[in-house]
Amino acid sequence: MAKEKPHKNIDLDKLTEEELLKLRVCDLPLTIEGTWLEGCIQQLYADMEAKGLTFNPVCYLAEEWLTPENHIVIGIPFYLAHPALIRLEKKMMMEAEGETVPWCMKLLRHEAGHAVTYAYRLNEKRRWRQIFGSSSQEYPDTYRFRPYSKNYVRHLDGFYAQYHPDEDFVETFAVWLTPNSDWENQYRGWKALGKLQYVDFLMNQIKGKTPFVERSEKHWNYKRMRITLENFYKRKRKLSAEDFPDFHDGNLKKIFTVRDEDTAKSPTAAEFLKKYKKGIMGDVAKWTGEKKYVVNALLKTISKRCRELKLVLPSDESVSLSRLTAYVTMLVMNYRYTGWFRGEQKDKK
């Protein structure tokens, strides 16, 4: 693993959030060496060695989790290299993807699947295409998944194996690579077991072999990001604009009640949302596979509209919670499948 020299004279621990946001990403004094990430990468290499694979993809700090197409390197989000940046990411995006060792290892094993694919041109094999599909298939903006399908393994959240043939393979590879996963028993009776057995066959074929591909350009390297952290997060948080301020009104009035003389002292719907926001956000993100910041942005819009409509809580709080959670889940599923909360296709005018 190549050593990276951090910038001098910047102590991230001593900066205020305002000062931190003014820094350019490329000026952040970051390195993998000596951080908890180094241990995770070494664990990845140990996992691969235990399976007889001698190829160790080089890891570097990048804009996000990625493996550049047809290159045999792995990009790790730069914010994971320092506690101050992890805290900032969590504040701005509601979570820091890969912030714990188990989560980081899941993502590293996933990305290693991409690197192995490119290193040995596995996706060019006829049998690979018969089992997983064509790598040349375009990645969709959104995807429909079947939560109970036994055709795919379950590794990352959001049923990610169903997104694209490449993701199907690398998720299967990640399950195969995970120590003590006991995949032969875990997936017994599933069609996905055949995919795991094929991965096992493929990996036995490339054991001890050096990669056929040597391309390893570190695209989207954090060192080339001249954007400030402030603008980076503005861009990252930007969602598709949807001009429908009254879109929620009819449904919100079914969940809550418009304030009148009889309900003047009832808790407001906005207060109710504040109380249960964290739980709703966590549950919806977990079961839809959507990012927490997307759900959070939607809840903020709903809360604002509740205040504007002067909505209050009916007598049965549990019913309102159930209905609101169901409503938010429906909207997020629309967003996940179409790119719009209202459920319209992106190419419609």
Give the gist of this structure.
With 349 residues, this protein is mainly α. Helix content is 48%, strand content 4%.
What report would you give on this structure?
The protein is mostly helical and 349 residues long. The chain is built from 13 helices and four strands. The protein has a two-stranded parallel sheet with strand order 1-2. The radius of gyration is 23 Å and the shape is globular. The model is unreliable at 344-349 (pLDDT under 50).
Total strands:
4
pLDDT averaged over residues = 89
Shape: globular
The rounded Rg comes to 23 Å
Query: What's the number of structural domains?
Result: 2
Biggest beta sheet summary: 2 strands, parallel
How big a fraction of the residues is strand? Answer: under 5%
Question: Which strand order spans the largest sheet, edge to edge or round the barrel?
Answer: 1-2
Structural class assignment:
mainly alpha
State the helicity in percent bands: 40-55%
- Parts with pLDDT < 50 across at least 5 consecutive residues: 344-349
Number of helices: 13
One letter per element, helices H and strands E, the order comes to HHEEHHHHHHHHEHHEH
Distance N to C terminus: 49 Å
